[in-house]
Design brief:
Layout lengths: L1 H8 L3 H66 L2 H8 L5 H22 L3 E8 L10 E3 L1 H4 L15 E5 L2 E7 L10 E7 L1 H4 L15 E5 L5 E4 L5 H9 L7 E4 L2 E10 L4 E8 L8 H44 L14 H40 L1 H20 L2 H18 L5 E3 H18 L4 E7 L7 E3 L4 H12 L7 E9 L3 E8 L6 H6 L10 H12 L4 E7 L3 E9 L8
Parallel strand pairs: 1-2, 12-14
Antiparallel strand pairs: 1-5, 3-4, 4-5, 6-7, 6-10, 8-9, 9-10, 11-13, 14-15, 15-17, 16-17
Organism: Paenibacillus violae
InterPro entries: Bact_2-comp_sensor_kinase (IPR050640), HAMP_dom (IPR003660), HATPase_C_sf (IPR036890), HATPase_dom (IPR003594), His_kinase_dom (IPR005467), Sig_transdc_His_kin-like_C (IPR004358), Sig_transdc_His_kin_internal (IPR010559)
Protein name: histidine kinase
Length: 575
């Protein structure tokens, strides 16, 4: 992934722009194409399912017609008044009975069977004194104990359908409206294969897993066009579904179409795997691809125009930047566009004009600096005159034996010599400490040695440099605002110089009255009279950085400690 990101990052901007446009455009086009294809599949699937439903509905109507025809045949038998009379008559003459059976019953039943070739057996079971007559008339005692369907006769008065092994049977009790003593049951066995032969043609050439079966009200399979799939069909009967639902058997989704066969109280089921429905989405897919390709051609053309228009101005800006890189700073760069590229061009032009102004300003400052250095060179004459004058005073003092005056003059000369530092802003820590010692010696003479001074200097600090006149103002503040303000007891001044790992800490501590919190919070921020700490702190931060400077720690009655922190810095100019 990072490799492709690097490749994209190193592309030209025009290539990135075109690639970005293409990606942004392809995503909705791909989604639109996928949506169109899926909608087409759903539409064709619905059409295929509708066609299957129509086919199954046609088969269901055909089966309803067949069952209705069988029931009309049954009705024609049980409602025949001649048959009812014969079966209800208690014959005393066997001759008369034989004539009625031979002249009426036998021809009538033979006619019914000849007209309905699906009928394999037509029998009336009776409990009267009627003797058995071939297979047309049999005793009711034959079926009372052995036929399961006989138990259902008492519960219904209409035609009943029953699957007896591999044989399909229809039974119907005779009505007792005209002849109350009539007790008979019509039994009709049908040729199952011929009865369901219209269902054997229902198949889908594209599928090897579809099937059709009929179930009764008790979910027993009456007919199946695929005996090997009975187990799957039984599982389908256990799943509660509506007429157009999906069922899932063994991880395979089936479309299940159901149509009721109301005459026999059956249900016709047809199922087919969802994936096997034939769908020809070629034309729609071709149209979708053609539409996407057309959109892509238009998009590429528009992207090329937009990218060229946008990149052209970036190329111009890049060309101007190259000219500036090679030193041409006198160009006037402006743009009338208000977009981001126009703003960038105008800002670059403003920056270039500002650079020209700064170049001019720096050149003028250089001239001013050279003039100041010349004046500083001239001003060096005055320190020489001061040093010579102090030397004369020192020589005269020694001549008359005034050693105190000679000492003060010597310290003063050394102080000014290090303080002036030949006009340089940086000095060594060693010279700055010597300058501070000279200042302290002068202050001791002026204070008649009324306070004590302690120096704790580590030798390692001498090799580094610091800002000129940075320690002396701290010592002066300690004497003026600390020791001089002390009302009782002798004053003490402690000067420490500690070398840390990367920094140098200068501690100046006095035992004066301390500083209150309000002044302590303002002493390094505001320019207060008598305190030079703010200027020293700002000079240190300006030279070394904001992490360095002065910290003041003080409590009322406990004295004050000023800590100056500087880096271990060596000025290359002084070396």
């Amino acid at each position: 992934m990072s490799h492709w990101l690097d490749v994209f990052k190193n592309m030209r901007f025009k290539q990135k722009l075109i690639l970005s446009y293409l990606v942004v455009s392809l995503i909705p086009l791909a989604l639109l194409g996928a949506y169109s294809y899926n909608q087409s599949k759903l539409f064709l699937q619905k059409q295929a399912i509708q066609g299957l439903q129509n086919t199954v509905g046609t088969l269901a109507r055909g089966m309803n017609d067949k069952t209705e025809q069988v029931e009309r045949t049954v009705d024609s038998v049980v409602m025949n008044t001649g048959l009812q009379r014969i079966f209800a008559t208690n014959y005393t003459s066997l001759t008369t009975l034989s004539e009625d059976l031979r002249n009426y019953v036998s021809p009538y039943f033979s006619m019914i069977r000849n007209l309905n070739t699906d009928i394999l057996q037509l029998t009336v079971y009776t409990s009267g004194k009627m003797p058995e007559y071939g297979e047309f008339i049999l005793s009711l005692d034959r079926i009372k104990e052995v036929s399961p369907w006989y138990k259902d006769i008492a519960e219904q008065k209409k035609t009943g359908w029953y699957l007896e092994g591999s044989e399909l049977a229809v039974f119907r009790p005779f009505p007792t409206i005209l002849y109350n003593q009539m007790t008979g049951i019509l039994y009709m066995k049908l040729n199952k294969e011929r009865f369901f032969d219209s269902l054997t043609t229902m198949t889908t050439a594209q599928s090897a897993h579809d099937g059709l079966f009929i179930s009764d009200i008790n979910n027993h399979i009456v007919y199946s066009n695929n005996d090997e799939a009975v187990e799957i069909q039984q599982q389908m009967l256990k799943v509660p579904v509506n007429a157009k639902d999906m069922v899932e058997i063994d991880g395979l989704r089936y479309i299940l179409i159901q149509e009721p066969l109301r005459q026999a109280n059956w249900t016709l089921h047809y199922y087919i795997p969802e994936q096997d429905i034939a769908m020809d989405a070629t034309s729609i897919v071709k149209a979708t691809i053609a539409l996407i390709m057309t959109c892509m051609i238009i998009l590429v053309a528009l992207i090329s125009i937009f990218s060229h228009t946008m990149i052209k101005r970036i190329y111009h800006l890049n060309k101007w930047m190259k000219q500036v890189q090679f030193g041409n700073l006198q160009m006037d760069i402006r743009s009338d566009s208000r977009d981001e590229i126009g703003e960038l061009t105008n800002r670059f032009g403003i920056m270039l004009r500002r650079i020209n102004e700064l170049v001019t300003e720096v050149y003028q400052n250089k001239l001013i600096q050279k003039e100041a250095e010349f004046k500083a060179l001239q001003a060096q004459i005055n320190p020489h005159f001061l040093y010579n004058t102090l030397s004369v005073i020192n020589w005269k003092s020694l001549k008359i034996g005034a050693t105190d005056i000679s000492h003060v003059v010597t310290m003063l000369s050394r102080f000014y010599r290090t303080a002036l530092n030949r006009g340089e802003s940086m000095t060594s820590v060693k010279d700055e400490l010597q300058n501070t010692q000279s200042f302290v010696e002068i202050q001791l003479v002026m204070h008649d040695y009324s306070f004590e001074v302690s120096y704790q200097i580590e030798e390692d600090v001498y090799q580094y440099d610091t800002v000129n006149l940075s320690i002396q103002p701290l010592v002066e503040n300690a004497i003026v605002h600390g020791i001089d303000q002390k009302e009782e007891g002798g004053g003490k001044l402690i000067i420490k110089a500690l070398a840390n790992q990367d920094t140098i800490d200068i501690h100046v501590t006095d035992n004066g009255p301390g500083i209150d919190k309000q002044r302590l919070g303002e002493i390094l921020i505001k320019q207060s009279k008598g305190y030079g700490l703010k200027n020293v702190n700002e000079r240190i931060k300006l030279v070394f950085g904001k992490e360095y400077g002065i910290e003041v720690i003080s409590e009322i009655g406990q004295g004050t400690t000023m800590i100056m922190t500087i880096p271990k810095y060596k000025n290359t100019k002084s070396q």
